Amino acid sequence: MLKDSRTNRFLIRLSIFALCAIAPISVIYIVVRLLVTPSGYGAPFLFMLDAYMLAEALFFLLVHLPRKWWINRPAAPYAPLKTRAQRREMLVRSWDATPEPRRYVQMYFYGAPVESLGREDVKRWLRWRLWGRYSLHGGKETEGLMVDEGELEEYVQYTEEVLGHEFPEGATGNEGLVVREEPVRLVRRPLMWYGIIGIVDTIAFVGMWWRGFSLYARSAESVRSFPLRPLSVLGKKSPSGAFSYWYREHTKKARENGHLPMLFVHGIGVGLHFYLPFLKDLMLSPRQQGVGMIALEVLPVCNRITAPLPPSEQIAEEVLSILQYHNWENCVLVTHSYGSALAAHMFRHAEAKARIGPMILVDPVAFSFHPPDVAWNFLRRQPTTASEWQLWYFASMDSDVARTLTRNFRWLESSLWREDLDLHFNQAGRTKDTRVTVFLSGQDIITDVNTLGTYLSRSDQKVKWYRQTPQRRSQEGWKSKEWTGAEQLEVVYLPTLNHAELFEETTPRHLLVKTVEAYTLSARKENYLLGVWGIIYHPYLGSTDRDLENKHEYDDKKSRMSETQSGGQYESQQCPNVENDSNKIRAQRRES
């Protein structure tokens, strides 16, 4: 992510303006050329310019505009919860995972105060959340399950109890944040941009191949997305019809030693190119020799023109088919950002879930789908900082990314909950490793890190979170807690990093590599100390109980390194919340 500065804000906005201007300039240029010089094109360089401008104009008129209309078709009916018990459980779970219910509701209604909402406004919102029915601007509802009005009234009363406010009868016209039903907002990309994506994809292909990975491509992969992927013809056929992936063999020696292979799922961006330094560090690690890896390619979130993602049940089955093909009975799952949504799909599929062992979730967004923070910050926020502009144009407003997160998005099936992790830890008869580490970036512009970290680390689960005092709700001990590798759930707080910057900066990336090593390597192997990597963040990172119990040795090592730690770039510090309070939301809505 770009660091925020006046220079970076100017450069990123200039870049966006230049890319957006190519299409209209091309159309105007072609029209003028046809009117001024209808025949004869003059010098060769002018012919090349004409050809490029014509290509850009045709791409805008024949590809972008029709796809914009196509993507904005109404979403398919979606009824996430089939029974009354499921709906009741989901409503209670959502409120239990919310420290500030009023802020929660205000953000869903574009910052409108709770006192300004009518009973019918809240009913319409709950119909969408629990039945999959919603009407925009008071119009006809989209299809979904038939709504039991008595049951709905019960949920409104429960919401009133949580908020401590009784809604007046009637509707006030306040619309909810329902991106699945609203018009899809996207910003045009020129043909040049897709040419750049093609070059980046080719660099990633060469980089992965050079590091010993083999491509398993879908059938006709070379022509199934744009820009085209001609080098995919050199790969093997993928056992999945929906995903291509890169594979490194899990050797017989690694299996005998009890090492686990790694499944990696990337986030929204330009594909695996962004993650090459991370994968390179893993490949160069002596401890990772022979450990298998699969790097999944999720093309609909890679700034490409391609087919949409399949339904969540099929996603889990497709990933399962890949694991079965390579005989992976157990693996370490590593995800970044949107990749955590695919982890949620696997959690809801019994066979796929059974093959997940330890998990490492970097900047996960799946825990934050039930509150409105991710939807607002990713799709509706008016950008102000350099990193927000970068996120807005190069991720949020891409046509296929926007389609994935709106028309094809199912918030419930893509959500992870603390209860999911508890079930992961406590499955009956489970004997394999199920530890989880979550990396949170303190300056994350997508998720509310303070709320998420507290949600994952809360020890007092019996008391309603929203009923606790502000001091109890905002526990921050998790920010300074040391990573040991021995606990079932650990949260690593990186106070100075923005979303995805862990993969960009060497020191924190090495911390992630060492964490992957601790999870993939057998516990029988000798424990090891991170050295200056991770110690700057957390003093000790181990992988067996033997050294963790040797407290005297640990204290000696810690004291010897105390001088090195002082003044470190990544000392734990207080991190402000992402600016998304209700007043700012209302101001941004007026501006947009």
UniProtKB/TrEMBL annotation:
TM ranges: 12-35, 41-63, 191-210
Biased composition (Polar residues): 562-580
Keyword Transmembrane part of the UniProt annotation: yes
Residue ranges of the region described as Disordered: 552-592
Span of domain AB hydrolase-1: 263-403
Keywords (A to Z) from UniProt: Membrane, Transmembrane, Transmembrane helix
Listed Basic and acidic residues bias regions: 552-561, 581-592
Pfam families: Abhydrolase_6
InterPro entries in alphabetical order: AB_hydrolase_1, AB_hydrolase_fold
Top-rank taxon: Eukaryota
PANTHER family hit by this protein: AB HYDROLASE-1 DOMAIN-CONTAINING PROTEIN, UNNAMED PRODUCT
Protein name: AB hydrolase-1 domain-containing protein
Organism name: Cyphellophora europaea (strain CBS 101466) (Phialophora europaea)
